[in-house]
Structure formats: structure tokens, C-alpha cells
Fold these 2 entries.
Entry 1:
Amino acid sequence: MTVAEMEMPKTLGEPGKEEVEALSITDRRTGRVYEVPISNGTIRAMDLRQIKVKPEDFGLMSYDPAFMNTANCKSRITFIDGEKGILRYRGYPIEQLAENCTYLEVAYLLLYGELPNRKQYQEWERNITFHTMIHESLKKFMDGFNYDAHPMGMLIATVAAMSTFYPDAHNIFDPASRTKQTHRLIAKMPTLAAFAYRHSLGMPYVYPDNSLSYAENFLHMLFKMPSETYKPNPAISRALDVLFILHADHEQNCGTHAMRGIGSSHPDPYSAVAGAAAALYGPLHGGANEEVLKMLAEIGSKDRVPGFIKEVKEGKGEKRLMGFGHRVYKNYDPRARIIKKIADDVFEVTGRNPLLDIALELERIALQDDYFVKRKLYPNVDFYSGLIYQAIGMPTAAFTVLFAIPRTSGWISQWQEMLADPEQKIARPRQVYIGPEERQFVPIEKR
Ligand code: ACO
């Protein structure tokens, strides 16, 4: 069929609406030409469904394993330009927020879209501070874990268990209930995390102290000895607060996708946060900060860095340089740049982490190496954060928990945005079935 013989273009967008931008698709199976509207730099996958050979066909689908090029939602929360290394929350550059805000201010910004004024901030801070205690039975629940239970496993299970303590959380379309669960989740995550850590050491739990800031209180619950007074170091608590800001949201990553996906079937937010935290746990995601420290310890000294890089390159993807590479950033992760600066402030108090020299050497060599340059692999948020956590005194296994605490505000913001979005429904991807055609059952004795 020649172009002249082709059918008139068929517009697949909203009927009666004139589209300015459109994509012309020629179906070479039929010769038909379709005009698919373009909006916000995307076409709608559902517009493809009308492209058929026979009327009874299902219609064309897009195939996109791992969502490499599929937008699942419209969002007003976080903006990333991975090529340029830009990250903004609600329009504010991450560098400005890290410089000027507290984590709780940023959490408010993510949730409500604007930075709080002083009165709003005081009320917000008070609401969080007064929800930090956990139910005594939840404490007993935590006691049931083995002494060597991974803190992330404990956190995931305990957050899920919280749904049984707050049955009102099922009223997800009641704004007052959502606000209450938001306060509880943001407030109680540090308490759960600290209790998980204390449990692993066999130390008594330390209850929250309302006179302390969010980060100070967390440090207090982690490190206070029953027999001694504990005063959090201001440089350490500020560093932790900034780390919380940097980890608060990162648009549609694996954990957030889990939050939205689980949330789309309308369970309570505790169950959805537990699922999101489970996704974060993996070594390719938030678990990478733990893996970075293991890797640095395995390398052991600066002179062994070139040998390690060689192994990574020869491993062809089997062995990875943990804390390097990102699905979205094809440039230096802006969070890693800020973390590198915070590391200096922390090491001034704690003394230099000896693994830092190995990390710096790894970065130096990798950034010049053709393998990493060609693939645009740069340090990500996890590359330096673990060094700080270790210097603060956190055990390696607890690093991902430190990621989950601040990410909770991002998860809830994304969950609320999803619930309010009239275009969202229960998440239900399609598949391309490539298994056997219909066949007849064979009794067991004949197989
Ligand atoms: N070390 C060595 N090679 C790497 C690394 C790495 N860290 N990351 C990617 N590559 C290579 C891959 O082998 C692949 O090479 P190829 O083209 O020759 O096959 C190429 O770079 C592209 O990698 P993909 O795995 O296809 O990229 P993807 O976007 O799927 O992965 C990911 C992103 C998972 C973050 C990956 O870079 C990785 O595994 N990094 C290490 C783990 C890590 O640090 N994760 C934390 C990310 S930040 C966060 O989640 C908070």
C-alpha cells in the first residue's frame, strides 16, 4: 500500500478535543496511520489499544520491563533531571533545602506542597513530637525477635503490625484519619528503628524525650545509657537531619512504586509503608548503603582499589561497584555531593573514618575509567552515607533503617497524591504471555 492509499489518520485522543501535538504511527500490518496525542512529553499507552489488525484483536500494548520508559503517574512532589543531576522537592533545589531547613520542615513541604510558616511549623512539630511513643504491646512484639534479627526485618514487620494497633487507619478516605496516621508514622519510625537497634544489642529501650528535636531524639533513643546522661552532639544531629532531608523523597523509585502499588488496592498506610520498606531493603536500592560498607571493608586498603575495579569490570555486571550507578542519574547524584560535605563535619567530631580514603580512591579511579564513564556511572546517595552512619556509631545492618525513617514522609506524600488522583486505579500491569498454548490434562500415572 502506498502512502496515498493509506487511510486518513485516525485520532485516538479525547473525542472532540483538538490536539496541538501528536505522534503519527503507521501500522505496517494494515497500512493505517494513527495520530496519537502527545501531552507532557508522553503518549497514553491506552491510546495504542485501538491499533488492531482485526476488530476482535485485543489491541496494541507497550512492553516495558522494569518501567524503563513508562510514567505511572503525574506528580507535583519531586523533580529529577538525571542528565543534569538536578533534584528538587516541590520546586525547591535540594541544596537550598539541605542548607536552610530541618527535616520536619521538608517533610511538611513534601506532604502539603508549601514550606510551613512559623505557626504551622510549631503545630506540625508538636504533633510529631507527641506521637513518638509506641504501644507497650508493640514493644513486646519486638522482644519476640531473635537477638541477631536484621533491623530492617524488624522494622518492616513492626510497621505492618502497627496497622493492627490503629484500626482507624483503614479509613483512608477520611482526611482526619490520614493526618493522624501521617503523624504517627513519621513520629514512630525513629522509635521503632531505635528499639530495633537496642534489641540487637540486648540493651533496654529508651523512651522518646519531647524536649529534643527529631534527629536529637533519635540519637538519644539510640545511644543513651541507662546509667548516664546523654547529650546529642549538635554537629552530629544536624548532619543526621540533613541526611534525612536528602533521603526524604526521590519520585518513582522502587520503594515508592511499591507504596503506590500497594496503596492502590486501598489498604491502611502501615501495610503499604511495610511493603515500601521491604522494597527499599534490597541491595540494589536502599540496602546498597550497607553493601558499600561491606565492599569497602573487603577492599581493605587504598592500594587494593585498582584490583577491585578490575574485578568489577571483568565481572560484567555480576560484581558491582556498590553505591555507584543509578537508573535516573546519569551524572553525579546531587545528594552524594552534599553528603560528601557533611562527612567532613561529622569526621571533625568523630575522627576520620579510615574507609573514607578507600572510598575517595574508588571514586577517583572509577570517574576516570572508560567502563564507568561510558555507562555514566557516578556515586549515588548510598556511596558516602554509610561512612557517616558508621562514624556516628551505627552498625552496618542498621543503615537501611536510617534511609527508611525519612523516606516515610515521601512515601506518605506519594500515597496521598495517588489517593487524590482521579486517574489512578488499582495498579494492574499487563503481561505478554509466552507460555504453552492450551493442552489437555494428563493423569499422574501417564506423565
Ligand atoms: N558497578 C558496575 N557496573 C554497573 C553498576 C555498578 N554499580 N551499575 C550499573 N553497571 C553497569 C551494568 O552492568 C550495565 O552494563 P552493560 O551495559 O555492559 O550490561 C550498565 O552499567 C547499566 O546497568 P543496569 O543494571 O542496566 O542499570 P539500571 O538502571 O538497571 O541499574 C542500579 C541501576 C540498580 C542502581 C545499578 O546501577 C546498581 O546495581 N548499582 C549498584 C547498587 C546501588 O548502588 N544501588 C543504589 C541506587 S540509589 C538508591 O536506590 C537509593
Entry 2:
Amino acid sequence: MSDLQGLESTITSAIAAAEDEAALEAVRVSALGKKGSVSELLKTLGSMSPDERREQGPLINGLRDRVAAAIAARKTALTEAALTARLASERIDVTLPVQEGPETRGRIHPISQVMDELTAIFADMGFSIAEGPDIETDFYNFTALNFPEGHPAREMHDTFFFAPDAAGERKVLRTHTSPVQIRTMLAEKPPIRVICPGRTYRCDSDQTHTPMFHQVEGLVIDKSSHLGHLKWILEEFCKAFFEVESVKMRFRPSFFPFTEPSAEVDIQCSRKGGEIRFGEGEDWLEILGCGMVHPNVIRNCGLDPDEYQGFAWGMGIDRIAMLKYGMPDLRPFFEADVRWLNHYGFRPLDLPTLAGGLSS
Ligand code: 2NL
């Protein structure tokens, strides 16, 4: 056996004996590396006579090519063997609890959830959504809404006023979302069908009142909308929101400066077993105020009350959220306690849909 054949069989055995990639790499370096046995042989070609080189060249180059091919083949075989071994040894333990990522750990605040639900219900009835500034002028918050000069809501102890500006104007933190509807009436031509959800502010703080709270108001203005339409809309809303087939409603005469006539609305409920349920029972619970928009308000928005009429209503979002989801206290809504949010909050994918029901 020639030296070359001896070397080849030594290397080939070493390749076959390599049990892993590291061992194979060591064989490759010892044969084809810079100072490897095959590389050293290749270097000898340079000092050979032309005849010798013609004879030895193909032999040494052939050896190098076969060694390289054998190493590549062994590498593929080792990789496949390693994968097969991993597949055989690794099993997924499906009984382990799923690790929650940040996107599933987060919770939607009940106020946001209820706002989404309200929006879905009224959007389905053809209402659009309008928003406006929290800091309002006296005109949008009071004057346009037919509040008389000495009305108690215009007093410091009921409403948050800013210090007068250079022009002597006292801005206010809006006490209701009605200014957004005033802005809508001033900006758009009837027919108007809009709901305005948002933050509102009053100087009030106890177990059932927080200085900042949330309201949603609705407004319809056209030439012929009347109390019958209002009653239907509110009934459809209550059925959809509280997810009941039917609910009795009671309209009690009331007073607001911006509506005439005005009513407070109660819905049928049962309070048996310390639990409140809607659409059944003999009890009543007040949930909103409403009325036909006062002609002065229509006039204040540049519309002719002999041509246009409509109705409006308003309710507290925090309050209906507490009622629907059984939360006993209002204050934790705004305390940013993650334990409370974990308990009462909603998962990011709990989107309200009208097709599947809001709670499904
Ligand atoms: C309540 C009562 C109400 C309105 C809000 C309104 C808005 C305009 C014109 C006329 Cl622009 N009315 N909004 C009407 C009646 C009642 O809210 O108890 N809210 C918590």
C-alpha cells in the first residue's frame, strides 16, 4: 500500500470514528487545516519536478477532494443523528401551565370595556361618536345649555373653575359631556345622531361620588323625532347592554334646564338574595335622565326650533358598569390597584360584539 493510500485509510477511519461535530472538526483540522497532513502534502507539489508533479498532482488533489467529501457526508449524518436523538428525548409537557406574556397579562379597565360596549350598541343603531375637550368655556358648558345666570352648578362649590384668564374668562372642567353635543350641533347640519362618552368633573367625593367620573350622552336632532323614538332607543339600549330579552321602563317627570319636558328613567329589577338582576322582579332602579331638547338650546346652536326638534339623554358610565358587573364600590375604579384590575378587568380579546353577545 502506498503512503497516500495509507494516509487516506487512516483519515477515513478517523472520520468514521468521529462521534460528534467537535471530533469531526478535529479530524478536518488535522487533515485539511493549514498544517494538516493533506495540506502538507499539497505543499510538496511546489518543489517537485514537472514530471513528478504531473504524476503526484492528481493523486494528492484527488485525496484532498475525497477527504473533504467524506467529512461533509459525515457531518450531515451527525447532524441528522443529533436531531433524531433530540426528537426522541424531548417531549412537550402539555400539563405545564401556559406562561402569560405581557399582552395577555394586561387587563382592560371596566370603564373602557363598558365604553366599548356602549359604542358598539349605539353604533349599531346608526349613531356616530363625538369627543371634545375636558376644559370647557362657560358658554359650551352652561350658557348654550340654557343654565340661568344664578344656577347652583355655576357656583365654585359644585364645579371646578380655573382662575380667570387675561380676557377675564373663567374656564371650567366640564360637568357633563353636553358641551360636545353643543359643538356637534354648531358644526353639523341635522339630521344629527351622536353619542358623546367621556370624562366629567364635579366637586363631589364620597362612597358613590368621585371628583372625576364618566358620562355618556346621546342626542338626536331632526325635523320629527319625538318621545316615542327616545323611549324605543333607550329600551333597545337597556336590553342590549344588560343582555336581557325584555325590560320594563318607567319615565318619571323631572327637570333639567336643557330639556323640556324632562324625565328620569328607571328600569325594572329584582333585588332578591342581595343580588340585582335586570328585566325581572318588581323593583325599580334609576339609570338615566332624558328629555326633548329645550327650544332655547336649539336656538343657541343656530337652529330654528320651529323647524328642528329632538331628544337627548345622559347617564353615568361608572354607575352602569358597577350595576352590570356587580362592583360594590366606586372608589377603586380610580385607585390603579392591579389586584382590583385583575379581578374586575377584562382580557384584551374580550371584545364586545353584537353577533356573539357582549359577554361571550
Ligand atoms: C343625567 C341627565 C341628561 C341631557 C343629559 C342634553 C344635551 C343637549 C341638549 C339637551 Cl346638547 N340635553 N343632555 C339631557 C337630559 C338629561 O343627563 O342624569 N345625566 C347623568
